[in-house]
């Protein structure tokens, strides 16, 4: 039975979900062997390619992941795209269990006209660009404009606003790519509008992410609403700041810190009175960038608190800008026709990490619960998935008998001309990045070109 055989387990994706699931399995089963497959040449998922460069402390989790990867019972198999180089049924045949932790690699489209125009990007691509994601290294956003608009008001929107507004000298000692830094040094963006559909109490970002918290935040301000004067009614019309006005520093746009009645903190991008800008899909937006994008003023709200929803009024308003970044969420892709997928929710249907109707198949992280939540949330849900898997192993629900594990997959990959990279390969690339960063006082200068990386590995 599997109890007598060292269980061979495969994890797909080396972001926080993959690593935390592996960590749990290795810790709680003394014989388990875990192979972590990753499509990139480098590990750590969004910790490397998502977390903002000016939040280096968040990346400390890499130390824990490195310990896991160095375990004799764990192996990193980078440069393998599951679903293309190897199919999920092939993995299921080779391993006792397969855990899908491949994150959310797409962005949600706004589905409004003009989204494909130059000057309109997903925040996901912009984040990938400044963080050195190989597929986004050619993005080259034109920052010669005065005003940028970010559509969406979650943490990613805030990260992007902060990066756009932080003086480049404050980013020079971070792991932001030199190429991005070069473009940001030339940037003429002074005003960033964060456009959201919902009211100030529903914004989805946390204070830590606000541009007003950044070191170079002279362009931003927090202000307490003057409660004694009351929150006045919304102004009849909303106007963008005069050309050259600094973002968030003067009316009508303010980042406002608001203490709610129940003691909770809330923040709002505020005009005098609680006022926001909204964008609706029926607006023919971005018709001829860099000429104006069209947005409509916030409409009356239905419902209260979390349930509040904005209702379009039909009024529209032009918001002149040269760059539009849509930041309305990430989205998982289906990985393989054999794996159930809920296209509406963008997740793999599962019960506490057990993929519905597919014994031996599990999921964790953003592909399990949707693209929300921080690394700590991902850790908790990955541990839970690991727990379910070990429970199934114990109760004999996983296939009995030995499984070949990587030996079988290695043969398949080799017959397909795929050459995986190991964790020690990553450690060589890591050392190279660290040494390239040293001269500039950066923690690392990321390698951007997979061909160059393979060359450095002697391939
Ligand atoms: P991911 O981190 O995306 O990992 C998935 C991995 O799977 C990736 O390495 C990917 O390359 C790989 N993969 C995908 N498809 C395949 C395939 N077909 N075959 C093989 N491998 C594949 N959280 C914080 O706590 N603090 C922050 O400051 C913070 N900042 C963030 C900033 C941004 C821009 C974003 C988007 C998220 C941020 N988060 C932050 C959230 C955090 O990054 C996520 O909670 C976490 O990364 C989700 O982990 P995951 O493993 O599910 O997905």
Automatic annotation (TrEMBL):
Which residues does NADP(+) bind? 153-156, 197-198, 373
Its Gene Ontology biological processes? cholesterol metabolic process
Mark out the compositionally biased spans (Basic and acidic residues): 432-449
| Recorded GO CC terms | mitochondrion
User: Region Disordered: which residues?
Assistant: 216-255, 432-459
Record carries keyword 4Fe-4S: no
**Could you say which enzyme class this protein belongs to?**
oxidoreductase
- GO MF term set: oxidoreductase activity
Where do Polar residues bias regions lie? 216-232
**What EC number(s) is this enzyme filed under?**
1.18.1.6
Residues holding FAD: 17, 38, 46, 82, 366, 373-375
Q: Which Gene3D superfamilies match?
A: FAD/NAD(P)-binding domain, NAD(P)-binding Rossmann-like Domain
Q: What keywords tag this UniProt record?
A: FAD, Flavoprotein, Mitochondrion, NADP, Oxidoreductase
Question: So what family is this one in?
Answer: Belongs to the ferredoxin--NADP reductase type 1 family.
What name does this protein carry?
A: NADPH:adrenodoxin oxidoreductase, mitochondrial
Naturally occurring in which organism (per UniProt): Lynx canadensis
């Amino acid at each position: 039975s599997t109890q007598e055989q060292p269980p061979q387990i495969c994890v797909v994706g080396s972001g926080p979900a993959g690593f935390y699931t592996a960590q749990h399995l290795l810790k709680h089963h003394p014989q388990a062997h875990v192979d972590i497959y990753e499509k990139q040449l480098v590990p750590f998922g969004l910790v490397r390619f998502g977390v903002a460069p000016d939040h280096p402390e968040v990346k400390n989790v890499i130390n824990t992941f490195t310990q896991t990867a160095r375990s004799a019972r764990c192996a990193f198999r980078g440069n393998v795209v599951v679903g293309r180089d190897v199919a999920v049924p092939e993995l299921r045949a080779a391993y006792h269990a397969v855990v899908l932790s491949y994150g959310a690699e797409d962005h949600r489209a706004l589905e409004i006209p003009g989204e494909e125009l130059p000057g309109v990007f997903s925040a996901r691509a912009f984040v990938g660009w400044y963080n050195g994601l190989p597929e986004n290294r050619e993005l080259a956003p034109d920052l010669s404009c005065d005003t940028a608009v970010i559509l969406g008001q979650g943490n990613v929107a805030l990260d992007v606003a902060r990066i756009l507004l932080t003086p480049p000298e404050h980013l020079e000692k971070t792991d932001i790519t030199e190429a991005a830094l070069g473009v940001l040094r030339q940037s003429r963006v002074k005003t960033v509008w964060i456009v959201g559909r919902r009211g100030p109490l529903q914004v989805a970002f946390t204070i830590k992410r606000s541009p007003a918290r950044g070191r170079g935040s002279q362009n931003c301000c927090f202000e307490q609403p003057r409660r004694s004067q009351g929150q006045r009614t919304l102004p009849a019309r909303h106007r963008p700041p005069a050309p050259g006005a600094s973002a968030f520093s003067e009316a009508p746009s303010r980042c406002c810190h608001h203490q709610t009645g129940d003691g909770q903190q809330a923040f709002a991008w505020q005009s005098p009175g609680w006022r926001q800008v909204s964008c609706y899909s029926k607006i023919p937006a971005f018709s001829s960038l860099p000429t104006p994008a069209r947005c409509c003023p916030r409409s009356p709200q239905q419902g209260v608190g979390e349930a509040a929803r904005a209702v379009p009024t039909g009024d529209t308003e032009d918001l002149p800008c040269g760059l539009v970044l849509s930041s309305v969420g990430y989205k998982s892709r289906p990985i393989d026709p054999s794996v159930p997928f809920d296209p509406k929710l963008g997740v793999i249907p599962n019960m506490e990490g057990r993929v519905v109707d597919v014994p031996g198949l599990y999921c964790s992280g953003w592909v399990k619960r949707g693209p929300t939540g921080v690394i700590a949330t991902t850790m908790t849900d990955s541990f839970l998935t690991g727990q379910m898997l070990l429970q199934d192993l114990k109760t004999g629900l996983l296939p009995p008998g030995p499984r070949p594990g990587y030996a079988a997959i290695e043969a398949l990959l080799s017959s397909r001309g795929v050459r995986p990279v190991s964790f020690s390969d990553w450690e060589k690339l890591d050392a190279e990045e660290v040494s390239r960063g040293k001269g500039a006082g950066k923690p690392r200068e990321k390698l951007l070109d997979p061909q160059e990386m393979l060359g450095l590995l002697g391939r």
